Amino acid sequence: MRVTVKLFARLRDLAGTGELIREVAAPATVQTVWNSLTAEMPSLVKYEGTMSVAVNAEYARMAAAVHDGDEVAFLPPVSGG
Amino acid sequence: MRVTVKLFARLRDLAGTGELIREVAAPATVQTVWNSLTAEMPSLVKYEGTMSVAVNAEYARMAAAVHDGDEVAFLPPVSGG
Amino acid sequence: MALAAVTRDPLDLQALMRDIAEGGAGDGAVAAFTGLVRDHNQGRKVRFLEYEAYEPLALRALGRIIDEARETWPGVRVGMHHRIGRLEIGEASIIIVAASAHRAHAFATCRYAIERVKQIVPIWKREHFEGGEVWLEGATADPDDEKTKLAAYRIACA
Amino acid sequence: MALAAVTRDPLDLQALMRDIAEGGAGDGAVAAFTGLVRDHNQGRKVRFLEYEAYEPLALRALGRIIDEARETWPGVRVGMHHRIGRLEIGEASIIIVAASAHRAHAFATCRYAIERVKQIVPIWKREHFEGGEVWLEGATADPDDEKTKLAAYRIACA
User: Fold this and answer.
1) Which of A41, C13, C146, D90 is deepest in the core (most CB within 10 A)?
2) Among partner residues C60, C121, C139, which is closest to B57 by beta-carbon distance?
């Protein structure tokens, strides 16, 4: 199945793109998507402890299920305001 | 000597005027002026415990000296804002 | 634009903010307070308010509050304008703006300032309500009373 | 005008205040907060900032903060707009307006809201300073973390 991955701020810089499509095998979780991403881009790994994640623009946990067509976002620590 | 007396809000209403001239004998204090005022307008007396006073537009005490030409103001509890 | 003002004209928060913010590019935080005339008070339906001031002393008292805030929160920039005369429902009677590098200081200054206005500024509200009118009386003004000053400080910094 | 907004356009505090105040003639107190781009940060001379957002989630997070405030301070009306894109020194990155019958609630809501923005809204600042640029990173966003929520509440109500 295909999911859209969104990356922001420093994660986007490290990946060189803010959006990419990943193929992952079902059943999948956010963690599955992240692992598939970091396998290719090891520089992202160190963010796992501090980032937040969202599925379809709602905050979620790494264990949340991901379905075909979902948008999965990885968010470094925020700095708005 | 002559002083200008300024009255505000309810004190002004009770006195029927916001400004009047009083003759008082020197040496005088704010208290002297107040006593001369309340002698004529006893309805003001009950404000003595809660009012503030000013001489020449500076907060002062009842014991403060008053000189010829001074402006003495009697101020009921404030309610600005 | 004066930092402290007592005026019969409508208040202009935007202009005061611009003035306070100007030249303070190190200040990231601007807190503001606006007091609006409410349509009711203590169960009464308010028609409009009339504010009266002992203007020269009111202006000095506003200036004193600004000085107090600056001593307490160094570097804070603060302006406060009070309107007097007849005010309709929803109109602003007071605007306060405080800018600082620290948002905690900007908020505290604003909060302190409005409490102090109600304590020591010689301004009075006459409430015209349905069925009558009444002078509202709050605090006995005494700028040297450290207890009321501390009360305002506690509210601001709590 | 939406209560919560994430926009590339300059922010309009006056318009947001008018919207929040409208129809609330029982509300006498309006507190506002404006965050301005500072010309320095951590010893660096800032040239300008670039804000990036995960827009749909940022909008939801702002809405969530508004809901939290309403639950905590019943009757409070609050709006918050965050700007994104390139912002010059002195420009407003965020405006928050809170109106209430109680000035304590208006202030607390405003204070709470800005703390919560910094905790849970997916927006990032890229600082362009003299000599380089850097992504600023603050809090790990977790809207369900009751500890950070309580910290914001304590700051607002202390």
Assistant:
1) C13
2) C60
